[in-house]
């Protein structure tokens, strides 16, 4: 248990601010267009065979089109780097090769915990036609932060059926930050894989938010439209909790605060226009721990949820910057139209609404899931906490924790360990890397199968 979670989080923020350029440049740049074709062929040969038709061939076929779209300003060149990087960065001797192996191992583990068809069959939930986990890439220019290009976007642009997740290359040597992958991979890529899931959740928002309409003091209907706009990100957070537990929320608070770059780290209490003038699709930072509080409170198999909620409540208050949530930007109305929003809503009321949304996502019974909630496939419970406790004992003793738990459990334990003792950051990172190396070697998709030997010879 943390004696003072706020001080622990602030100490970790200080370590991260000295070690990580969150939006900086690192690693090799995207290869020139003339070299891409050959690198795509070489990298494609190394990938597991299942990716050939679902990712490699479509990207190779549409590479010129992607470059043309980027040159015409229709898509970002950074998106082309990510899509091609999912293949190219697997060529032999590519820099950050060891980090990339750990990266894909984490993605595979997080994704398959939700979308493994054997697990879905056991829960009597419809199987997926394409259960392959996303690929991975490190961005040379990390100015956009962590990104996922989900399978539906890949289908739209290249006709593929597998997504890709990207982290800034500056994150590559800091696996403790990879707890965010539970949001990108165990969140976005999962919610987009089940057809109709997000639409079904959106249909439940009016009922979940009705009690908060008056106290949030927004124009009629705006609260529901706002959370419909934020729903993809909110659902990704909740699904991340099912995979990595309360540690995901605590890690996210530290990451969001540290990425702000302020002398005194805090969580932003505003959501403003981005891109084409639309309101940021992410809820205001200060609301995200409250989404987590709602979801964690719904984890009936987690007996320690009260203590976890207490820590997260303390972090939300300790990193709070304002008493109102500022909202400025275009808000979609469900059609092709949007309206300008410029409002300030009371933080406490918006926080209670966020908790209601988190609780609804965690418990919603959905046709997309065969009439069950997401917790029928994956949830965080006492069994996970027991494994995390064992891993934390190993980390505290500075001994190997490889093989003691799945990647989500190891990440949760490592995140908790450095929240409690930021001075152990380097040691914990090294032990985490060792565990993720074993995860790659033993991954059913990425690992190399061992030959079946008839006789094991004794060695002198």
Order of helices and strands: HHHHHHEEHEHHHHHEEHHEEHHHH
Largest sheet: 4 strands, mixed
Uncertain regions: pLDDT < 50 for 5+ in a row?
none
Radius of gyration: 22 Å
Strand content: 5-15%
Q: What percentage of residues falls in helices of 4 or more residues?
A: 40-55%
- Overall pLDDT: 91
How would you characterize the overall build of this protein?
By secondary structure, the protein is an alpha/beta fold. The chain has a 4-stranded mixed sheet with strand order 5-4-6-7. The protein has a 3-stranded mixed sheet with strand order 1-3-2, with helices on both faces. The longest helix has 23 residues. It is globular. The model has no long low-confidence stretch (mean pLDDT 91).
Topology:
Elements: H1 5-19, H2 33-46, H3 51-71, H4 77-88, H5 97-115, H6 117-122, E1 135-139, E2 147-149, H7 151-158, E3 164-168, H8 181-191, H9 197-209, H10 213-216, H11 222-244, H12 246-259, E4 270-274, E5 278-279, H13 288-296, H14 305-318, E6 324-332, E7 338-346, H15 347-363, H16 382-396, H17 407-420, H18 425-442
Parallel strand pairs: 1-3, 4-6
Antiparallel strand pairs: 2-3, 4-5, 6-7
């Amino acid at each position: 248990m943390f004696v003072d979670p706020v001080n622990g989080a602030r100490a970790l923020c200080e370590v991260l601010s000295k070690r990580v350029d969150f939006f900086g440049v690192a690693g090799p740049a995207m290869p020139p267009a003339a070299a891409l074709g050959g690198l795509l062929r070489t990298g494609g040969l190394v990938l597991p065979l299942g990716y050939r038709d679902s990712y490699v061939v479509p990207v190779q076929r549409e590479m010129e089109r992607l470059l043309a779209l980027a040159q015409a300003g229709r898509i970002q060149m950074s998106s082309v780097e990510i899509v091609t990087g999912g293949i190219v960065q697997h060529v032999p001797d590519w820099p950050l090769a060891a980090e990339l192996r750990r990266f894909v191992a984490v993605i595979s583990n997080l994704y398959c915990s939700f979308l493994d068809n054997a697990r879905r069959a056991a829960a009597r939930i419809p199987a997926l036609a394409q259960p392959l986990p996303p690929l991975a890439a490190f961005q040379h220019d990390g100015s956009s932060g962590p990104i996922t290009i989900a399978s539906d976007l890949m289908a739209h642009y290249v006709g593929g059926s597998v997504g890709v997740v990207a982290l800034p290359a500056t994150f590559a040597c800091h696996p403790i930050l990879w707890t965010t992958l539970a949001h990108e991979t165990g969140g976005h890529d999962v919610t987009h894989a089940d057809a109709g899931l997000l639409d079904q959740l959106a249909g439940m928002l009016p009922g979940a938010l009705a009690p908060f309409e008056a106290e949030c003091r927004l124009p009629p209907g705006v609260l529901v439209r706002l959370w419909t706009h934020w729903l993809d990100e909110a659902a990704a957070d909740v699904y991340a909790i099912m995979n990595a537990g309360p540690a995901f929320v605590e890690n996210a608070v530290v990451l969001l605060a540290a990425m702000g770059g302020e002398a005194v780290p805090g969580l932003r209490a505003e959501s403003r226009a981005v891109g084409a003038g639309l309101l940021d699709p992410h809820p205001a930072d200060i609301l995200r721990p409250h989404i987590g509080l709602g979801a964690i409170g719904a984890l009936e198999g987690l007996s320690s949820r009260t203590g976890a909620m207490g820590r997260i409540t303390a972090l939300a208050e300790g990193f709070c910057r304002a008493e109102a949530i500022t909202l400025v930007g275009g808000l979609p109305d469900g059609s092709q139209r949007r309206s300008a929003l410029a409002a300030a809503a009371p933080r406490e009321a918006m926080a209670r609404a966020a908790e209601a949304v988190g609780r609804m996502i965690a418990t919603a019974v959905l046709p997309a899931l065969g009439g069950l909630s997401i917790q029928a496939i994956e949830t965080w419970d006492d069994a996970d906490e027991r494994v995390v406790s064992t891993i934390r004992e190993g980390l505290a003793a500075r001994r190997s924790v490889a093989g003691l738990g799945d990647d989500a459990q190891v990440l949760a334990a490592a995140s908790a360990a450095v929240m409690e003792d930021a001075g152990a950051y380097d040691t914990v990172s090294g032990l985490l890397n060792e565990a993720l190396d074993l995860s790659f070697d033993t991954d059913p998709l990425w690992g190399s199968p061992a030959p079946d030997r008839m006789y094991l010879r004794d060695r002198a």
